[in-house]
User: Which sequence fits this backbone?
């Protein structure tokens, strides 16, 4: 009777080879799960870093779009407030041309009880040298705002740094038939362009990869109605 019970118990037990095989399979499955989890965690971190890195650029483009959508129709025949719209270059010292970027009047100024300014303000977008040239890979996009558009003395300007690491910045205006890289109501251009296209080339650590990377583009239609002679005369 004892021998029969022992034989029955031994027949139901696992052998050492079966235990080792099960442990090996469990280790392989655990390693695969760990690899997938680590890859997903690494992808999530890289995505978060990419999103955080693009946040200032997205915010800068949103501010630029809002300013362009609120652009005020130029009035070059007014002696009180000319309200020019300029894109291109301006003459600098020693007969050198300096980048003007984009300068215009817009209705995006915030009205508050603490300041006497209205909603019309003058803004200027341009590239400047980065504050920390040793660590910066490119230039800095700066937005300059002038709230007092009717100053009796020198107008005060407030600079706002929007985004860094910019290699190049280009503004193009659409006049109904073609795109132009200059627009100046002080030099004969009339009214606002129908649309403005902004091209931003980000700086890269690898100079050879700069030419292969496509620039970022922002297209903003200008829907401000042009002033008629009767309306312009009434606002003069």
Assistant:
């Amino acid at each position: 009777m004892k021998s029969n019970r022992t034989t029955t118990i031994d027949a139901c037990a696992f052998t050492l080879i079966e235990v080792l095989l099960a442990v090996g399979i469990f280790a392989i499955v655990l390693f695969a799960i760990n690899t997938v989890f680590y890859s997903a965690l690494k992808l999530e971190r890289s995505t978060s870093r990419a999103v955080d890195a693009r946040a200032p650029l997205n915010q800068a483009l949103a501010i630029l779009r809002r300013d362009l959508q609120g652009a005020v129709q130029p009035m070059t025949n007014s002696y009180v407030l000319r309200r020019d719209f300029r894109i291109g270059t301006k003459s600098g010292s020693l007969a050198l041309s300096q980048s003007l970027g984009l300068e215009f009047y817009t209705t995006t100024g915030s009205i508050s009880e603490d300041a006497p300014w209205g909603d019309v303000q003058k803004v200027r977008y341009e590239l400047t040298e980065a504050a920390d040239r040793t660590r910066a890979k490119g230039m800095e996009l700066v937005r300059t705002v002038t709230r007092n558009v009717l100053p009796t003395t020198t107008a005060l300007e407030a600079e706002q740094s929007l985004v860094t690491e910019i290699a190049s910045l280009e503004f193009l205006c659409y006049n109904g038939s073609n795109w132009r890289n200059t627009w100046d109501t002080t030099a004969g251009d009339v009214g606002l362009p129908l649309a403005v296209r902004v091209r931003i080339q980000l700086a890269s650590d690898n100079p050879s990869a700069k030419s292969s990377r496509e620039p970022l583009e922002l297209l903003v239609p200008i829907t401000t109605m042009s002033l008629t002679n009767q309306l312009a005369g009434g606002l003069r």
